[in-house]
Amino acid sequence: MRQPLIAACSLLLAVAGCAATESLMPKSAQVPAGIDFSGLWQLHDEGMDTVRRIDDAELAAAGGNVPISTRSSSRDRTSNRTGSKGTLVHVFLETGRSLKITQTTDGIFISFDRAIVEEYRFGEHREISVGPVVADRVSGWEGSTYAIETLATDGAKLVESYRLENGGQLLLRSILIRYKNEIQLSVEQVFDRID
Question: Under DSSP, is residue 186 helix (H, G, I), strand (E, B) or coil?
């Protein structure tokens, strides 16, 4: 009687261990009629705190909040490295106080502070990388919102979305980072059209 129970529990654990990791669902490549994000956008003054929160989250993810230890034992170095709550997906998050967006028939180009340009193709599903960090990305339309989801190999997920409000004079950008069912960052930024 006890042996079948142990076998059943072992099988259950094996199946749970083989359970599929999260996968990204495709987004629409069809641009909604009348939606064009093209233009120059400036972050609201009240939104400057969001840039600081994003910077702080990136610093924490990189282990920047881990105190420097004067001890040099390998045990201490290992515990500092593993004690960080860092996730890989942060390397794919860009931000800026001003955005220049160019929308084409196939995709969107977003320039952050005229320094870094990100390219997104409507309906894309591809592997992306920054140095040795690799992730899966989908982007496309969810109604009139443009959504980008990035899933890193460590299971952390970055969800970004852009939508227009106030007759196209405001751009709302939402950023969410989730890791192991815990929200690490949740920010909404509001940009004014300046062109």
Answer: strand
